[in-house]
Amino acid sequence: MRRTAGIIPLLLLSFAFAQEQTPKLDTGDTAWMIVATAFVMLMTLPGLALFYGGMAKRKDTLNTIAMSFVTYALVSVLWVLYGYSLAFNTDISGIIGSPSKLFLNGVDIKSLQGTIPEFMFVVFQLTFAAITVALISGSYIERMKFSAWVLFSVLWVSLVYVPVAHWVWGGGFLAKLGALDFAGGTVVHINAGIAGLVGALLLGKRKEPTLIPSNLPMVVLGAGLLWFGWFGFNAGSALASNSLAAVAFLNTNTATAVAALSWMFTEWLHTKKPTVLGLASGAIAGLVAITPAAGFVNVIGAIVIGVVAGVIPYFMVAVVKHKLGYDDALDVFGIHGIAG
């Protein structure tokens, strides 16, 4: 009888502990993720659209902006139809997610991803998929018709982005091997950079490969919006309003600032003249480089990453690209592929 009486408190304690371990909705985390998701959308529209549009020739500006706009719309639809399920649902053989959540079947108002509504997680990841596809357009401007870009966007997000996202973030084989990618170095930037390079090689050179930005103020405005939105991109990847998000926020800003200065001084030494385009490009390279490590390094690590991000991508864009002879119009591979 005494033994039975002693077991009852243990059972009650175990039950209470299990209750504490059950994920519960956190309104603070949810509020932060709503803001972070809006920040990431801002990166594509209007951030990237303005950044790319300002660098394109005047006659191609509207088409370049439209490529980012239509990409966001397309991916928004495809993601809720099948993209989310195949990227983040139960793993199948380490390659792809289960189709059981097609059309968001089984996701309801009570579904949670950690401490936030699963619906919120769906939209947050949607914004990542959209900007990844939009990034690639920078390699293809002036050589791809709008209709071809629409078809490419549908195929690429379905056949490339979704599987890679599952491999790294959705419990696929790379995740099981221990791959660490805090906010998208592999899934977003290397993925987009390689696609940009391959596409540029297949499409061949433009008639006038030299690109002089048609609207530098637009470029700088776009870069500023990207910098701002990237706080949601990286700090939001903590999926909570906590100290990890704060660390990612600080590291993102530090690496970006250092990379902008590093690129500027590298360009100054190399060409004897710094440029505002160089400052903007360096900032983007820093944002890209800190993305996979934003939540894993301290501020010293962020500074080192920023220095490297301002030097290696600069020489890739200013020297190596011309020696190799490929025409990556807006340097998607040189900045995103290399820095990522």
Total strands:
4
Shape: globular
SSE run: HHHEEEEHHHHHHHHH
Share of helix, binned: over 70%
Strand content: under 5%
Structural class per helix/strand content? mainly alpha
Given as residue ranges, the uncertain stretches (5+ residues, pLDDT < 50) are: 1-20
- The CATH homologous superfamily corresponds to Ammonium transporter AmtB like domains
The main sheet comes to: 2 strands, antiparallel
Question: How far apart, in Å, are the first and last alpha carbons?
Answer: 65 Å
Whole-number tally of structural domains: 1
* CATH topology descriptor: Ammonium transporter fold
Mean pLDDT: 93
Enumerate the strands of the largest sheet in spatial order, edge to edge or round the barrel. Answer: 1-2
Compute the CA-based radius of gyration.
22 Å
Number of helices: 12
Under CATH at level 1, the class stands as Mainly Alpha
What is the second-level CATH architecture? Orthogonal Bundle
Layout of strands and helices, then pairs:
Elements: H1 2-21, H2 27-55, H3 61-88, E1 91-92, E2 96-97, E3 112-113, E4 116-117, H4 118-140, H5 146-169, H6 173-176, H7 185-203, H8 216-235, H9 243-271, H10 276-290, H11 299-324, H12 332-339
Antiparallel strand pairs: 1-2, 3-4
Helix pairs in contact: 2-3, 2-4, 2-8, 3-4, 3-5, 4-5, 4-7, 5-7, 7-12, 8-9, 8-10, 9-10, 9-11, 10-11, 10-12, 11-12
Structure description:
The protein has 340 residues and is mainly alpha-helical. The chain has one domain (27-339): Orthogonal Bundle (Ammonium transporter fold), CATH 1.10.3430.10. It has helices at 2-21, 27-55, 61-88, 118-140, 146-169, 173-176, 185-203, 216-235, 243-271, 276-290, 299-324, 332-339; strands at 91-92, 96-97, 112-113, 116-117. A two-stranded antiparallel sheet has the order 1-2. A two-stranded antiparallel sheet has the order 3-4. The protein is globular, with a radius of gyration of 22 Å.
